[in-house]
């Protein structure tokens, strides 16, 4: 465990002590400087005798109306615990605090190893043959129906999102919350067991995604995007579900940026187009829209086309939703046909136009990549 993590654990424990102890407790570095204390005014104070105490072989000492005890981490004295008083109660308190801090530090090390193991599985850095053995050591069920949900967030909300998700899914041996970086958090959800670990009716992937999204929106009042992989049945396959969730986020942002939840199984044509080369896409686009005819369509016409497709080429329903006369709709569709030579009232032409529009979106995405769209590049590197 690094020093920053040790300090974070010690500071949290000191904060918890503020409400249960009636005397001052401080964590002091070997040079005598207070780094955390139940009385915040003590932070930064220097105890000159601590350096002498660290140089001695004593484990506990009494000086200037305080009791001091060395806190050994990995067999080495790294900090000193200082408590007001030299009575028997002070000795009892400091011994209990020492055990408490060591237990918390040990738990933190275990959790760090636990999370590192799961992240290694996600990133395919763990040998498949080792996964069942290590899963048993960490008391993780190897065979279980799970799904990876990749939550894309604002980096300033990272810790808040982690806390909310851990509150939503508190069973840490069953449902795993894994921050990948400051902007992406994986929820690896067991779809078979309830929060008490009992087998229940299989949860719907859609239901879980909606629960995560609605909870985060309600708590933080901001928008989120969630990429959803497919269900897998063993721990070694969670990397597959995670890859799918990552791809769902990237492709979803290209073709359906208005969606909050992006499922790998529903990527449709987008997944196919994403695997085509830009050169091939440009050739196709030039064939369908010669002379850049697509860009001659104004925003009103493009809105009409989108609504026409949403209503499955139903002219009457499209006219009603756009609040225009049917003749106006016919005029706009005729205009599209004149510019592009595609009659969107015919199924084949409509499919060709839709496909070409998606290819255009993909090429625009490629251009953004070339100019450094860091968010999508970061996603695809993992």
TrEMBL record:
Protein name: Sugar diacid recognition
Domain PucR C-terminal helix-turn-helix: 303-356
Regions that span the bilayer: none
Species this chain originates from: Amygdalobacter nucleatus
Domain CdaR GGDEF-like: from-to ranges: 130-249
Family: Belongs to the CdaR family.
InterPro entries (UniProt xref): CdaR-like_regulators, CdaR_GGDEF, PucR_C-HTH_dom, PucR_C-HTH_sf
